[in-house]
Amino acid sequence: xxxFIQELTKGLWREIPPFRVMLGLCPVLAVTKxxxxxxxxxxxxxxxxxxxxxxxxxxxxxxxxxVRIACFITISATxxxxxxxxxQAYVYPLYLQLGIFVPLxxxxxxxxxxxxxxxSKNPVHLAIADGIGMGLGFTMSLTxxxxxxxxxxxxxxxxxxxxxxxxxxxTIMVEAPGAFICLGLILALMNFMTHWQIKxxxxxxxxxxxxxxxxxxxxxxxPGCSSGQNKG
Length: 232
Prior knowledge:
Layout: H1 2-9, H2 25-30, H3 35-58, H4 68-90, H5 92-98, H6 109-117, H7 124-154, E1 156-157, E2 160-161, H8 176-204, H9 223-226
Antiparallel strand pairs: 1-2
């Protein structure tokens, strides 16, 4: 159960796809002009990722290694066609907004990456947990980035104007350069938070002063001491 929870939660922060492991950046930059597009794209990827992980994990022992990538693509392509048909039937305006990036889910680095690195090597329940965690992390990332760009670039959030009267939108935010600017700022903020957490963790580690009798006879010059194994 602990392993299941670990795989389920790793994609929400520690290995969040676009911001930590830098996967799926093409749709992250291209479709996040607003929060609705980001949410819709994220849900589509989540659907494909969870089902492809489950199917690939189920048949992993029957897929020849030499053709595994082709099999993975075939499975994900089938699921993407299903997503396309569902979007055309129920959310056609969103489907038109996302355009070519819906069929391109087939070759999304997240789908193939999780299939090769995890689903093909782990049991079904862990593969499903990995797909849910990574998919939710990807959805949250796209929605968050889209919300920032929409808020600053149009003054709206999910199509509703929420900024103060007289607000002047930064129109660059809903253009291509705005995607790179927002992504760069988010990456910088996350890196800062990571370094701050590491520094805080190191400062909270108690320092133990060794007595002379406890010091190694080598005087600290051996490889073990230099690597920090014998330090207090």
